Amino acid sequence: MNDKVLRYIKSAKRKRLPAVLIAAVITIFSCVSCSESNISNENTGISAEYETELFEKGKLNDIRINMTDWNRFVQKTHETTVTGDVSQQLQEKEYDCCDVVINGEEIKNTGIRTKGVYSLLTAIDAGSDRFSLVLKFNAFEKQKYHWLRMIELNSNIMDATSMKDAVTYDMCRFIGLPAPLCNYAKITVNGEYFGCYLAVEPVGKDFCKWNFGENYGSLYKPLHSLTYTGFWPSKYKLIKDTVKIERSPFSSVKTALKSVHRKQNIESHVDVDAVLKYMAVQTMVVNLDGLTGDTPHNFYLYESDGRISLIPWDYDLAFCGRMLYKERMFSQRMQDIEQGTFNKEEWLEKKEIAYHDEIRQIINLPIDTPFMCDLSEREFFMNIIDNDEYRNKYHEYLSVLAQQYVLGGELEKSVNTFIAEIQDIVGTEENAHYKSTDFDSAVKQLKLFLQRKAESVTAQLNGSIPSDRDSQEKAPEKLIDTSDLDVRLMGEKWGKQ
């Protein structure tokens, strides 16, 4: 019930108006309120107030966290992270208590905890309190914020653009792929400005209800390549044990993976269209901290009525935020040090060459083998696009992203909206990992990255650049030039170089 209704009820009771009249006006106000604040998902017919209250693109949120023991919360985070297993602590999900005011609405006794692994370790290493956070409204009381149980607040500590997630999710929605809602928030803690964060809708019950309807299915967050490895359930422990919502037997997932492995009856067990859209986005943003790279995580697996699909998640290390050359060069350095042959100047020169080689490889990553790992480890996708019809559909989605979203003006429009929303506050906070000047340079690189990527994808679609790994290796002279790119300005896993 909104403030107008509450004020009317109080006034009416003081004036002793008839109860029938009060009830009639409440009904009218309620209907008006619903038409103003509730937007129904056109696919499910489900209304979610939080879509407009918290995630309206271009409308900066104001989130105020009031917590008497904030300093103890920060100290405890530093102590437990240094001495323990971060991933284990996050799985335990222990919440402290705070009061929150979101856009003027107070939610008392809200649960608060840190989130993330690399982002948390980066903050700890920097001696910072700039943690990504989770606010769980029903942690201690039965309450929600406009039907939303919890929100995640991303610190963007490894993202100088502050918009890798926002742009990627925007791209997903542009081609009709379900993706978390998100928008920016000005965070204050105990009355002091704390940071420009990205508020993100968690992938959970609320997300599933909004996107798939009341009878939504099962949800997993795998640490698995989705490759079929045989009959025994124990072989899929890193999918099965990550279940978030369980509404059907796991055997449906295993059957779907088997159908892809055998290339038989795939559409009966896989939402192929959703998977192709997911991989088209992955190919455009090159998230090496996910299925594109060597670590099969940072995505959700959804199963309903025996069919599976993929849901996008966590892109703060996309756009080359994590690059594999650094790990190779680090190993080489350690080996040279052990052998007594390390020369710093030669190593730095080799490192710079390796960096530029990898950027060129990433921008031109072949669309028909879009992985920086052994292709046998990505059987799930490779087997799907082995079908000509599916490959052509995947190419269509890539063309839409390249020609309409990136080169057609949608990217520029979205980025300009994000800039207008946060440019006055981003990088001005005391605990900012990147400053305002870093933000400006980083956003220019993000747009340039996607422009070069769209040019390469378009050239691969029309055949002027080979679209598979083997053919590209035979014709390196055809690849798009990337000498004007310095993606390190967008932020990276290991900090500034």
Task: Provide a concise account of the structure shown.
The protein has 497 residues and is α+β, with helices and mostly antiparallel strands. The protein is 44% helix and 14% strand.
Please tell me about this protein's structure.
This protein is an alpha+beta fold and 497 residues long. The chain has 18 helices and 11 strands. It has helices at 3-14, 19-37, 50-53, 70-83, 86-92, 118-125, 164-174, 205-212, 237-240, 251-262, 272-285, 324-339, 344-363, 379-384, 388-406, 410-422, 436-461, 469-474; strands at residues 61-66, 96-102, 105-115, 132-136, 150-154, 182-189, 192-200, 218-220, 243-245, 299-304, 307-312. Among the domains are: 3-37, no CATH class; 51-207, no CATH class. The chain has a 7-stranded mixed β-barrel with strand order 1-2-3-4-5-7-6. The chain has a 4-stranded antiparallel sheet with strand order 9-8-10-11. The radius of gyration is 24 Å and the shape is globular. Helix 7 (164-174) packs antiparallel against helix 16 and helix 15 (388-406) packs across helix 17.
